[in-house]
Design a protein that fits this description.
The chain is of the alpha/beta class. The protein has a domain of 75 residues. Helix content is 33%, strand content 16%. It contains 16 helices and 20 strands. Strands 4-7-8-9-10-11-12-13-14-15-16-17-18-19-20 form a 15-stranded parallel sheet. The protein has a three-stranded antiparallel sheet with strand order 1-3-2. About 2% of the residues have low confidence. This is F-box domain-containing protein.
């Protein structure tokens, strides 16, 4: 008679869920020793779990299919697949086929190839010889090599021709080094455009971006686009303008060189992106203003702007008014890289953004130190009562900031939804204990250092934020001590509540 366990394990969905938990672990791999895992599409794949899945696939016929599905779903290289056909490493570190492809080996190859859904090849030092791809292509007779491939991270090379898949949704061309061959690269970009019927996510770096741009208008199904450009070779801003014709885009990231020159003829304004929700821009101010004009009709919810050495006057007078169209939609704003003159000691830089009352996330990271005082931070807290994540963090810091731990009370009182906070505070001297509150802040970061008695500092912080999950700073030892004391206070408080409940 079958037990309940046996009946449960005969359900394919149950087996797949069990093996998925065992296979591609979605949590952070911080507890795994280096070299015992690889990361593919954000999933940390432990090597020991792969061996376990292989054993499960061999031990039971009912386990075979679901175990192999999970084992081959995320791959960091094509080499394990080609080794089924007899792949060997040559003297020049290239891989080649050492024997003919037999029917039995080919059947195993296809069995595994159709299970691969995510391929991330960012180690271009392990090169499979082009002849291997040609021999495999002869056996495929026009069929796709990886018919179920959903996402691909691969160097911009001719081998991309062999990885075409009707199910491909995400393509990342930022992996590895690339030696440009103009004619070949143009052909690759043409192939990508022709094979883009289902493509929704495209990422490309400098050289691949340059060859993708001429065909970018043919990517009618793209939902997310990320393009990076370097200072060489020179870039014509008029060509980049083609990006703004993609009506299907929901997320757009444009990283332009700070040496990009203003064109002699005006850039045309294209306002076709009506569905754009997230926009990230980096480059000279003239192009950022142009891009914001093109996106004026889009209902932006998230905006990131990273300028290059622009003066504070230009930043305020030219950029702030352009954010007006999104006063009712913008939820996340990130500003960084620009270099205002000298130390930031007043709110004139960020005051204009107080009009964005619906902001939930604000990340401010200039290239100079921030030194706001307690009164300044009180104004910030009152301006954004709906704020959930706030980061005021210059790329450099001063040893003795004017703001103190007392500034935390402002955010505990005026920002009830705040969950993550990063500030520059001086914590060497703690004033009288604050009023005890029940604010649900989860993450607190204090710069530059946590100085002073860790117990006193932890008691002060815990009185304001009893639900903290982490306390971090640049001073690792003091940070650990303060966080440990906060955890102890929380544990004592929980035990006290438990005892009271037991009494009643």
């Amino acid at each position: 008679m079958e037990s309940a366990t046996h009946r449960a394990l005969q359900i394919p969905e149950v087996l797949h869920e069990i093996f998925s938990k065992l296979g591609a672990q979605q949590n952070s791999p911080v507890n795994l020793p280096f070299g015992t895992y690889e990361t593919v599409n954000g999933a940390a794949i432990a090597h020991e779990h792969q061996h376990t899945l292989g054993a499960l696939a061999r031990c039971c016929r009912g386990f075979s299919d679901p175990a192999l599905d999970v084992l081959w779903e995320y791959m960091g290289s094509l080499i394990p697949l080609f080794k089924v056909l007899g792949l060997k490493r040559g003297d020049n570190d290239n891989y080649y086929l050492s024997r003919s492809i037999t029917p039995s080996r080919w059947a195993r190859f296809e069995l595994y190839a159709r299970r691969m859904r995510h391929l991330k090849c960012d180690n271009y030092g392990e090169e499979v010889d082009d002849v291997v791809f040609l021999r495999v292509a002869q056996c495929l007779q026009g069929r796709p090599l990886l018919p179920s491939l959903h996402s691909l991270t691969f160097p911009f090379s001719a081998q991309l021709f062999h990885l075409a898949s009707p199910s491909l949704k995400r393509l990342d061309l930022s992996a590895g080094d690339h030696q440009s061959e103009k004619d070949g690269d143009a052909a690759i970009s043409e192939w990508i455009a022709e094979s883009s019927d289902q493509l929704e996510d495209l990422t490309a770096t400098t050289e691949s971006s340059l060859f993708i741009l001429p065909t970018i208008g043919r990517f009618n199904t793209l939902r997310r686009l990320e393009l990076w450009f370097d200072s060489w070779p020179p870039l014509d801003p008029h060509i980049v303008n083609k990006v703004f014709t993609l009506r299907s885009l929901v997320e757009l990231t444009l990283i332009l060189s700070k040496t990009l020159k203003r064109p002699s003829t005006p850039l045309s304004i294209v306002t076709d992106m009506h569905d754009l929700r997230k926009l990230v821009l980096s480059g000279p101010l003239f192009y950022i203003r142009h891009a914001l004009t093109c996106a004026a009709r889009a209902p932006l919810a998230s905006l990131g702007i990273y300028l290059h050495k622009d003066h504070i006057g230009d930043f305020k007078n030219s950029l702030n008014p352009m954010l007006f169209p999104w006063r009712g939609t913008l939820r996340s704003l990130s500003l960084g890289e620009f270099e205002p003159a000298g130390l930031l000691q007043d709110l004139t830089v960020i005051e204009p953004f107080f009009e964005l009352r619906k902001l939930r996330e604000f990340f401010f990271n200039p290239a100079v130190p921030i030194d706001f005082c307690d009164k300044d931070l009180l104004v910030v807290a009152k301006a954004w009562p709906e704020m959930e994540m706030l980061k005021l963090d210059g790329k450099s810091s001063i040893d003795t900031p004017r703001a103190t731990l007392a500034a935390l009370q402002s955010f505990a009182l005026w920002c009830p939804k705040l969950r993550s906070l990063c500030l520059h505070l001086g914590v060497a001297h703690v004033l009288s204990s604050p009023r005890v509150m029940s604010h649900r802040l989860h993450h607190l970061t204090i710069y530059p250092n946590i100085d002073g008695d860790p117990v006193v500092i932890a008691r002060y912080i815990d009185a304001l934020f009893p639900s903290l999950l982490s306390v971090t700073s640049q001073h690792r030892y003091k940070e650990t001590e303060v966080e440990r004391m906060v955890k102890q206070f929380q544990m004592v408080r929980d035990e006290d509540v438990w005892r009271r409940n037991m009494v009643h």
